[in-house]
Amino acid sequence: MLLNDNQIEKMLEEKGFIDELIDPNIKLSEEIARLKEEKNAVILSHYYVEGELQDVADYVGDSLGLAQEAAKTDAEMIVFVGVHFMAETAKILNPGKKVILPDLKAGCSLDESAPFDKFAEFKAKYPGYKVVSYVNCSADLKTLSDVVCTSANAIKIVESFPQSQKLIFAPDKNLGNYINSQTGREMVLWDGACMVHEKYSVEKIIELMDQHPDAKFIAHPECESPVLLLANHIGSTTSLLKYVEANNAEKFIVATESGIFHQMKKACPDKTFIPAPSIDSTCGCNDCSYMKLNSLQKLYICMKHELPEVTLSKEVIEKAKEPILRMMEISKQPVA
Ligand code: 13P
Ligand code: SF4
C-alpha cells in the first residue's frame, strides 16, 4: 500500500500510528538496506542526526561534503537524513531525481530567520553589494544570492571577491562576524542565528576549561564571538572531527550539536569528549530539535513509500543552482 502525503504527514505527527504500520518482527536497519538496493537509493546523513541514522548511511558528512556527494551520485533516489535546506540543495543539484526526507518539518532556525520578502527588501537597501549566503537558508533565498558557502569554505568563498567588493552575508550573523574577523572585511550581516550554537555559556565554558586544563576547546563558527575567542580550534563539523583525530590531546570540550559525538567516539574510542555547556543546561540545548526529528522509523516509512518528497519549481531550481555551482567551483580552486 502506497500512502499519500497527507497520510504520511498524519502518521509522522502521531508516532504511535507509525509504530502500528511497522511490522514489529522486522529489523529496521536491514529493511532500510534492502529498500536502498531495491530502489537504487543513496542515503546521505548529516553528523547531527542520531548515531543509528549515521550508521545506515552511504555517506555521513558536513553540509559541503553532503552537497558534493549529492552532486556526484548516480543513484535514482536521494534519501536525505538531515534538514530541509540540505535536501533542497540535493534537489537543486539533481532536478531529475526524487529527493526524500524522513520529516519535512525538519527545518533550521537560520533558514527561518530569513524569509524571502524581508531579505529582498534588505538587499534592495544596498545597491552594488553582492550577496554571499550561508547554505543554511531556503532555496528561495539562494535565488537572491551571488554565491553560497558552507562553514567549511566560507572564508575561501568570501576571499574570492576583491577586497573592494562590498558584501552582504546572510543569514548567520555569528558566522558572518567570524568571517569578518578573519578576513578584515566589513560585510553587512543579516540578523540570524542558530538556536543551538547561540546558547553556549562563556562563563560555564571557562569553568569547565578550569576543571579540565588538559582539554582542548573546539567550536563551530556558528557560535557567538565570545565563545569563539576561547577556542583552540574553530571549524565545520568535518574540521572538528579531523582535529580531534589528529590532535594529541586526550580530552576535548566540544561546542557543537551532540550528534557529532557519534563519529568522534567511533574515530577515537579512547579519547574523552565533553559537551560544552549551554546557558540552560537542563534543556538539552546541544541537540538540534530539527535534526532530531529524524528517526529510524521515519526513515523506513519514508523509503518504503517514497514520501515526503522535496519539490521545487523549475524557476527556483535554475536560479538557486547558479550560486551553488559557483561555490563548488571556488571550493575546488587551490588557495592563492
Ligand atoms: P556543517 O556545515 O559544519 O555541517 O554545519 C551545518 C549546520 O547546520 C551547523 O549547525
Ligand atoms: Fe540549523 Fe542550528 Fe540545527 Fe544546524 S544546528 S540545522 S544551524 S538550527
Describe this structure in words.
- The protein is α/β, with parallel strands linked by helices and 336 residues long.
- The protein has helices at 5-13, 15-21, 28-38, 51-55, 63-72, 84-93, 109-113, 116-124, 139-142, 154-159, 173-183, 202-211, 225-228, 237-246, 260-267, 296-305, 314-332, and strands spanning 41-46, 59-61, 77-81, 98-100, 130-134, 147-149, 167-170, 188-189, 216-219, 233-234, 251-255, 272-275.
- The strands form three sheets. A four-stranded parallel β-sheet has the order 2-1-3-4, sandwiched between helices. It has a four-stranded parallel β-sheet with strand order 6-5-7-8.
- The radius of gyration is 20 Å and the shape is globular.
- The N and C termini lie far apart (56 Å).
- The mean pLDDT is 94.
- Bound molecules: 1,3-dihydroxyacetonephosphate and iron/sulfur cluster.
- The site of 1,3-dihydroxyacetonephosphate (13P) has 11 residues, from loops.
How many angstroms does the end-to-end distance come to? 56 Å
Low-pLDDT segments: none
| CATH fold title of the largest domain | Rossmann fold
Q: Which molecules other than protein and nucleic acid are bound?
A: 1,3-dihydroxyacetonephosphate, iron/sulfur cluster
Main pleated-sheet profile: 4 strands, parallel
Report strand %: 5-15%
- CATH homologous superfamily caption of the largest domain: NadA-like
Approximate shape = globular
Share in helix: 40-55%
Secondary-structure element pattern, one letter each? HHHEHEHEHEHHEHEHEHEHEHEHEHEHH
Q: Structural class, from helix and strand content?
A: alpha/beta
Give the domain tally. 3
What's the β-strand tally?
A: 12
CATH architecture of the largest domain: 3-Layer(aba) Sandwich
Question: How large, in whole angstroms, is the Cα Rg?
Answer: 20 Å
Q: Taking strands numbered 1, 2, ... along the chain, how are they ordered across the largest sheet? A: 2-1-3-4
Number of helices: 17
Mean pLDDT: 94
Broad CATH class of the largest domain: Alpha Beta
